[in-house]
Amino acid sequence: MKNKLFLDVADSFLQKGDIKLDKKKKDEIEINYFEVDKNNGKRLKKEEGKYYTINYTLDVLNKYPNNLKKEILRVIKSFKKPIKNYKTTLVVGLGNSSVLCDSLGPETTNKIIATNHYTDFLTIPKVALFVPEVISKTGISSYALIKMLVSSLKPSLIIVIDSLATSNPKRLNKCIEISDTGIIPGGAIKTNKKISYKTFNIPIIAIGVPLVIEVKKRMYTSIDAKDIIEKLSDIIASSLNDLFLK
User: Fold this and answer.
1) Pairing state of beta strands 157-166 and 175-179?
2) Architecture of the 6-245 domain
3) Mean pLDDT of 190-215
4) Quick one: pLDDT at residue 19?
5) C-alpha distance from residue 196 to each of 10, 143, 173, 203, 216 (Å)
6) Which terminal Cβ of the chain has fewer Cβ within 10 Å, N or C?
7) Has this prediction a pTM greater than 0.90?
8) How many whole angstroms separate alpha carbon 44 and alpha carbon 209?
9) Contact 65, 71 (CB under 8 A)
10) How remote is the C-alpha of 59 from its chain's centroid?
11) pLDDT tens-digit profile of 1-40?
């Protein structure tokens, strides 16, 4: 079972007017922002933190990828800016590279430039990449593998990339969620714990895209999923490469 899109969780509250999103639109891209605090967190059953959802049409994805890239970069910078004594970033591509609709994390991570192994270029930000795959391939939970790596690497920031689930067909393949509240790798696996600031005491940025739709507890994907993932992985990876190397 994939992690659910925040907007799906919030839908019933939005329809009743119990909560409101901050919205703005630019270049045919709508950016929603919502902050979960102690009061609304109890109603939403979500941890405190910030959620950005970048909504776009497939026309924007196909013709104006740079517009999407700019918005992703702007949001990630806003999360990264408060971090003090910034040193190394660990980018984790969650998911199963052998399952198309679950391959966004590995596909994106494979397109990001690793720099952690360079010792002669002191001004280059240190970026380490990791694809833990899934427990059915490794016999070890993603959380356990990430915990071991974090203990050794001691990063200043963890960025996790994963595919999400939605129950709204209008959102399938058409939005990017960026939050600082963390994510559970392989949500259905009981041995996995949430990758969050609480569990690692390290700032977390989670980037997710709803690539499957849930209907009566079954997951479905679209016939153009391969093309969508190829384009989205290019855009997200390019945003992160610009963040680190420009």
Assistant:
1) unpaired
2) 3-Layer(aba) Sandwich (3.40)
3) 89
4) 85
5) 20, 11, 25, 7, 29
6) C
7) yes
8) 20
9) no
10) 22
11) 578 899 999 998 888 888 889 999 988 899 999 999 988 8
The residue extents of the domains of the chain are: 6-245
Are the C-beta atoms of 135 and 143 separated by less than 8 Å? no
User: What is the C-alpha separation between 206 and 72, in angstroms, rounded?
Assistant: 12
For the chain, counts of helices (H) and of strands (E): 9, 9
Q: Which residue has the higher pLDDT, 208 or 192?
A: 208
pLDDT at site 187 = 54
Contact 168, 214 (CB under 8 A): no
- Contact between residue 154 and residue 202 where contact means Cβ atoms under 8 Å apart: no
- Dig out the tokens for 62 from the structure: 């196909």
**CA-wise closest residue to 80 among 201, 203, 198, 182:** 203
Picking from 70, 93, 99, the residue whose alpha carbon sits closest to that of residue 225 is 99
